[in-house]
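This section describes the prediction task in plain terms. A model, or a person checking by hand, is given the sequence of a single protein chain and must write out its three-dimensional structure as a string of tokens. No templates, partner chains or ligands are provided. The sample shown here is typical of the held-out split.
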Amino acid sequence: MPLTTRDIPPAKRKKKDPTCLEISPVVPATATVGWSSLPDDLVRRIADSFLATNDVDCYMDFRAVCPSWRAATDDPKTNTSDPRFCPRTWIVLDEVFQSDDRQILLNTDTGRFLHKKIPLLLDYYVVATTSGFFVLADRSPPHAARVFNPLTGYTLRFTVPMPPDVRVAFFGSWGKASSPLCLVLLGDLSSKLYATVPDSEGVVSYDCQREVYNFFRKAIVGGAYSHIAGLGFALAFAELLDLLRSLHADFVKVFFTNLPEDANDIRFFLVGLAIHMVLVIKIQGTLFVFKMDTELGKVEPLQGISNFAIFIGHCRCLPVDATKFPGIEANCVYYTEHLGLSAHICKYNIKDKKVERISEAPEFVKQDKQFVLVAHHPFTIIQLLCSYTINTPDSQLPLQQMSEGAEESRSNSGDSDLDD
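The expected answer:
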């Protein structure tokens, strides 16, 4: 007879506690080995996606995962001048809460912040920051210039000594994106421009009239330098001169950078967008926005700037994609209104031509030469970017050169005493 068994009742399903989180099974370490054997073309496509948004730091982290991923991607160290690896959409925020080796960088295209510790800065004199680069000088004479990329960690060395009066510099493609990278140093006291390229042992210097120097300085600190090489730049510049004459404005003074300003002053600000240069004119507290088309050679009123917002200041100007920054309104110009030792942030709507203050209380007070944020922490992105436009840190080099000069003077004095 066949064996018989008792019927077993079906098992009862236990009710899950909704507050209990399920724990995924542990993936064995051997299951991740396949990542290192991804096809090279797929690895390159992933890496290129980081470069497309200029997130070069993520690209460097991606290459550090394994040897096969490094072999499949380009090494920034082999070509430090490659524009793909330049922090072209990054700025270095200069707020006072930073330490000497900790910096806050911001990608103005994506809205991503990067808080980075950079011990290398302690080994050089920091002269200026430009387009995400640090322009440095050797600590030992003759204080040769250096350009440091904080996203790749690589430094370009130059033979040209750093002029003592440099507070503004530029490193990148001058004119078209395909142009070779060059370093341009601006001497505020001498009104000179110094230019050199990474592979050159020489430097070219230009003596500029003060009005021309002020214009170039504004173009560089506003990111509008790429439009200067336009075919119609000379014609657009001639129209700008005609506009100045019609306003009875002083060419030297309209691009002046120092504060304070008189309420009756006329000031010009240059900002670089992808397709044209934006010219913002401030006349007795009223703003007028023009586009300076250096390809067609025209200066004409601007009706809008799409999804962009512009931040202008006497020290620097920049555009940002407003869709990537909550709280920033597109098609607007943000600027600071200075009242003695304090300053308010204002917003000008290009389409409606309306001006409004961001808050009733002043956001800045002047301490020494800087306008310091007095708003409550955490600061808003509008406050940080406005601070970026009206403050620039002093170069660390002149103080050292003054010290060296004093030591040399004392040494010469001692020698003359011995001669006596």
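For orientation: Residues 232 and 297 are 4 Å apart (CA to CA).
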